[in-house]
Design a protein that fits this description.
Elements: E1 10-16, H1 31-42, E2 47-52, H2 55-67, E3 75-79, H3 87-90, E4 93-96, E5 102-105, H4 111-114, H5 119-122, H6 124-132, E6 135-137, E7 140-141, E8 144-145, E9 154-155, E10 160-164, H7 165-168, H8 181-192, E11 196-200, E12 217-221, E13 224-229, H9 238-250, E14 260-265, E15 271-272, E16 275-276, E17 285-287, E18 290-295, H10 300-311, E19 316-321, E20 337-340
Parallel strand pairs: 1-2, 2-3, 5-6, 10-11, 13-14, 18-19
Antiparallel strand pairs: 1-20, 4-5, 7-8, 9-10, 12-13, 15-16, 17-18
Helix pairs in contact: 1-2
């Protein structure tokens, strides 16, 4: 089995309609409109599988999507209960065999080893497969079902995987107690077709997940990685991002070739109610013919969009205002999961 890269052809994007006001305390009202805008853009290029809790949420979602110009005929509504809407983390990961046949990986989800309310989210891959009817695989290792969130990894579809030591090897928010570097590499090889794991250090400051790589560094093609850097030496992110940059520049791929490493700026720190939020341009979503990039009313927005436009010359690169959305401690990549064609 192999996990395709995000830029490979897709059938759909899996999303869940926002409903948990506790994820955006005091700032929930604009969130459904951010969703509707994103869905409108995605339906220009592919289908959207949208999870809703009930008929009432479906009506709200349809009304908002219609107002923003979404193509409603390209939205499939699945009635599935969720605790939260972060499909990158609790949703299925799709893999393909050598003949292109798809299967669905159902990892255990424990809410980043942090929150108690996750039992509905943990059932999402099983329930969504009621619509897909694919082979459903629950990854196991050492007799235990493996905990993994999609935001903790990024793949190039050719045997390489990015992750961080902070997320998978730390005893803080520990996903799989006792798992070593070698345990994870065995799991990734078996279930995702990975030949080489690239271990970065820490994720960005303010990240509620304790080190997800999709706020940090991403593949943009099989041999290119974009990674965020901080210019201000007094910033909490400066040293840790420099460490990751140095690590990436030393990496050789499975054929011994050095990766192309492109630097992406960080926006100025985004705070709300005194809390530092995980605002990062690396949390972009790649879909058919389009790349959606979080922006933050920052001078670096334009720079980041231009860099990504050069890296994705055949796709339209579009900024999505996420200064309100990031109060939920995630943005565009975190909310979504791609379904390969």
């Amino acid at each position: 089995m192999r996990m395709p890269a995000e830029w490979e052809p897709q059938t759909a994007t899996v999303l869940a309609w926002p409903h948990n006001r506790e994820d955006w305390p005091g700032k929930f009202e604009p969130i459904p409109w951010v969703y509707a805008e994103i869905i409108s853009l995605l339906t220009q290029h592919q289908r959207v599988r949208l999870l809703v809790r009930n008929e009432s949420d479906m009506k709200k979602a349809k009304a908002a999507c219609e107002k923003t110009g979404a193509i409603l005929s390209k939205i499939d509504f699945y009635t599935i209960l969720t605790n939260r809407i972060w499909m990158r983390e609790s949703g299925p990961i799709f893999v393909k065999d050598a003949k292109g046949k798809k299967a669905l990986l159902d990892w255990r989800f424990n809410a980043w080893a942090k929150y108690p309310n996750h039992k509905l989210d943990d059932k999402v891959p099983e329930l969504i497969n009621g619509h897909y009817k694919l082979e459903r695989i629950q990854p196991m290792h050492k007799g235990k079902r493996v905990v993994l969130e999609g935001g903790s990894i990024d793949v190039n579809g050719k045997g390489l995987l990015l992750t961080t030591e902070e997320c998978l090897l730390s005893s803080i928010q520990e996903r799989n107690k006792g798992f070593t570097r070698e345990d994870y590499e065995t799991v990734f090889a078996k279930y995702l077709g990975i030949e080489q794991v690239i271990w970065l250090g820490n994720g960005i400051a303010g990240d509620d997940t304790h080190g997800h790589v999709d706020d940090l560094a991403r593949f943009t093609d099989a041999t290119t990685v974009v990674t965020v850097v901080e210019k201000n030496k007094k910033d909490a992110n400066y040293a840790l991002l420099q460490d990751n940059l140095k690590r990436l520049k030393k990496i050789r791929d499975t054929k011994g070739k050095q990766l192309t490493v492109v630097e992406l700026p960080m926006p100025k720190p985004v705070y709300f109610e005194g809390q530092l939020l995980p605002a990062s341009y690396a949390n972009f979503l790649i879909a058919n013919n389009v790349v959606l990039v979080p922006t933050f009313n920052d001078a670096a927005d334009r720079i980041a969009l231009n860099i990504l436009a050069e890296l994705f010359p055949k796709r339209e690169v579009i900024g999505i205002h996420c200064r309100d959305f990031v109060w939920g401690l995630g943005t565009i990549h975190c909310m979504s999961q791609q379904e390969p064609a």
